[in-house]
Amino acid sequence: MPRTEIQNLELRDQRREQILIAALKVFSRRGMAATKISEIAKEAGLSHGLVYHYFKSKEEIFTLLVQRAAESAVQIIEKARLQEGTPLKKIKWMTEQILQGLSAGEQILLFLIMIQASTSDAVPEEVQHLFSSPEYKSPVNCLVPLIIEGQQCNEIIKEDPIKLAVSYYAFIQGFSISKLQWNQCPIPEADLIIKIFK
Amino acid sequence: MPRTEIQNLELRDQRREQILIAALKVFSRRGMAATKISEIAKEAGLSHGLVYHYFKSKEEIFTLLVQRAAESAVQIIEKARLQEGTPLKKIKWMTEQILQGLSAGEQILLFLIMIQASTSDAVPEEVQHLFSSPEYKSPVNCLVPLIIEGQQCNEIIKEDPIKLAVSYYAFIQGFSISKLQWNQCPIPEADLIIKIFK
DNA sequence: GTCTATAGGCTGATAGAC
DNA sequence: GTCTATCAGCCTATAGAC
Hints:
Two copies of one chain form a homodimer. The first copy, chain A, is built from ten helices and no strands. By secondary structure, chain A is mainly alpha-helical.
């Protein structure tokens, strides 16, 4: 009995996801240029030919993953804003979520691919456009309003909010890297980072 | 009149340095794998053949640069220890030096190549050995004694010194990346970072 | 849908002329 | 010391069998 249309569509999505997850793993450790399609295929447990059946090119896969990572970076901030409590409480909550996510899982891989995508020149044009486009909501920009709110209720020090946002995000990105450099490295409590706002 | 032996040696060193500086520029923006020898040659203003006259391979150039970067990372900490004042004053002085160095010059390029070398799997074996060898003095390890000193004179909070060192270094690395992502990004004062020690 | 075989292009590295 | 021409190997992407 042949597969139904719906089953085929499900299989298709499943395979695509399988390849994307494998690609995320390899890209985040080796970078876009050094990653070979054969490595992605091997990680996903299928032939390299099949990868090209589901995706047009290596660049397409990379770009897709970067878009996802960018979305998820902004999402966590949006989630924080919906949280109960004062602005600083929201930031603390978010920091806890992020630090926890860094400890395990693929959350850290999304961070790493974002760092690679935004710091390397050796990425597809589409990715470069993504970051330079005016619509692009950078995590720093998303964070600024929350910081200003905190300043208005005297919870956060009266310092240039952009400077504070950049510093905060630098911390987060720095930790992702530290974790990669030294997998067992101790993770600080959210309070330690929050100090920069006081 | 032919060149003397000494002039030849000078020329040789000069050319090597010229190539190394060009390579640092390209590597730090494109990574080890995505960098082509022809790009290094072009940046240095000479033919690709000549690069191979001075260096055995692309990997050799990359490894050399990483070694330099590793040395310079530790050097700044050593310099700080020789400074006058209390431990926290020394750390503050060092932070000012680093933040200033990030603003311009090739100091930031050394940071970036260190980050690449220590976070990517796509680097020469020698580089991987460098970081995993027991003799390797990581910046975090070099910083710990200074932090402990500060704790002993009640200048620094009684928190796991390794955790503090990791956090400090995470910030520094994170900031290098932020600078690359957004060249005009505001630079915080050293005091803002020092807060994590209080 | 999935695989294997292979074309085509690019790049690291070398050889040899000047 | 410096350059240009060239080789050899690898990797992306495709074609075609099952």
